[in-house]
Design goal:
The protein is α+β, with helices and mostly antiparallel strands. It folds into two domains: 71 residues, 434 Repressor (Amino-terminal Domain); 103 residues, Sandwich (Jelly Rolls). The chain is built from five helices and nine strands; from the N terminus they run H-H-H-H-H-E-E-E-E-E-E-E-E-E. A six-stranded antiparallel sheet has the order 1-2-3-9-4-7. The protein has a three-stranded antiparallel sheet with strand order 6-5-8, with no helix packed on it. The longest helix has 11 residues. The protein is globular and about 45 Å long. 31% of the residues are buried.
């Protein structure tokens, strides 16, 4: 876990949030009012004490009117093409639970360093968990998942769908949704998130 936290710190997400907030002459309370997130949580994010969930980053990016990929790119990156070799997707973001505990998903960014992209591709790993309403998230945009191995139950719109290797799902992420690993093999898949509104 400590290694993951160090890799997340390399992204400097907290610094990017603080810089964007200060550029817009907003206080932490202003940002809390716009996002609906608590002031203490935002402070912890800015100080790299909390690994922010993707849904939380989406709310922050919407408040700043920037794309979520701003948090996953280096300041001076301007490459038109990014090749990520197997095993090199080391930038990891976890989606944690507000009540603590181990996170149900681990995201490895597959386009880290590419500027001005309209989508955010990830290698997604699912940790073994029991179903809980707390796992449901919703945010602007659309998502796509292609499952490579293992099995997961996908909770969406009051339904539960079993997803197996080779299956894919494309959905409106404004609808509350969640994934739960159900196989002995840790499930992995390629997920693509698009946060830009039409």
């Amino acid at each position: 876990m400590e290694n993951i936290r160090e890799e997340v710190k390399e992204l400097q997400i907290g610094k990017k949030v603080r810089d964007l907030r200060q550029q817009r002459r907003m206080t932490l309370q202003d940002l809390a009012d716009v996002t609906g997130l608590s002031k203490p949580l935002l402070s912890q994010i800015e100080n790299d004490q909390v690994i922010p969930p993707l849904a939380t980053l989406l709310r922050i990016s919407k408040a700043f009117k920037v794309s979520i990929e701003n948090f996953f790119q280096e300041e001076d990156s301007a490459e038109k093409c990014i090749l990520i070799k197997a095993g090199e997707s080391s930038r990891i973001i976890q989606r944690g639970l507000s009540r603590g505990g181990s996170p149900p998903y681990i995201y490895h960014s597959l386009a880290y360093g590419k500027r001005d992209r309209n989508m955010e591709p990830f290698l997604m790993e699912f940790a073994a968990r029991s179903w809980s309403e707390d796992l449901l998230v919703s945010h602007e945009g659309q998502e796509f998942l292609f499952l490579l191995e293992g099995e997961v139950d996908f909770y969406f719109g009051g339904e539960v769908m079993r997803i197996r290797p080779g299956d894919s799902v494309f959905y409106d992420s404004r609808e509350p949704h969640a994934f739960v690993a159900v196989s002995e093999i840790a499930p992995r898949g390629v997920a693509v998130l698009s946060s830009r509104e039409a």
